[in-house]
């Protein structure tokens, strides 16, 4: 299914002026502005149009994912699965939940996963990254979430008025590149990474214990 997905998807705003190109994880790869943009868009609406184009590209990605699931037969296989096809396996209470080789109960494992997810959400909710275009003297900025998706775009209307689509395109992609560069420099806290590693180990131990 993954191999059948397109490497890139594109989306345009409602006016058909802005085009965004996204990668497989909806990460922003490129922004394009048509040379005739001022005929159909007010300069004050440019930033919102860029975000709209990105959202439409994300919808195109969702459609591509769904089509791939159907074409690969994954959905048919999931629909054909029954609970009776899987043998019941009792989960013994964990005798050692601290050292190597420990096996957590399902309740303990679930709690550990929720703890990790809740902690990540609270830490990352203010971690959006803003990239600014130097060639636009700060009048163009692109905001990316931690997963690389676009969540905001600001374009000064006075700066954009009268400028060519290629000039705005260049400034937007410079800002997006700066945001992506800053994203790569954000390190995951060591403690959170260790916690994630431990949860993964516990899940593997849990699954291995089911097969005994």
Concise synopsis of the structure shown:
Helices cover 47% and strands 14% of the residues.
String of helices and strands: EEEHHHEEEHHH
Shape: elongated
How many strand elements? 6
- Portion of residues within helices: 40-55%
Chain-wise SSE layout:
Layout: E1 9-12, E2 18-22, E3 28-33, H1 46-72, H2 74-80, H3 106-124, E4 129-132, E5 140-144, E6 150-155, H4 157-160, H5 165-185, H6 190-210
Antiparallel strand pairs: 1-2, 2-3, 4-5, 5-6
Describe the structure.
By secondary structure, the chain is an alpha+beta fold. Helix content is 47%, strand content 14%. It contains 6 helices and 6 strands; from the N terminus they run βββαααβββααα. It has helices at 46-72, 74-80, 106-124, 157-160, 165-185, 190-210; strands spanning 9-12, 18-22, 28-33, 129-132, 140-144, 150-155. A 3-stranded antiparallel sheet has the order 1-2-3. It has a 3-stranded antiparallel sheet with strand order 4-5-6. Helix 3 (106-124) runs antiparallel to helix 6 (190-210). The longest helix has 27 residues, at 46-72. The relative contact order is 0.15. The model is unreliable at 121-125 (pLDDT under 50).
Question: Which terms would index this structure?
Answer:
3-stranded antiparallel beta sheet, 212 residues, 14% strand, alpha+beta, 6 helices, single chain
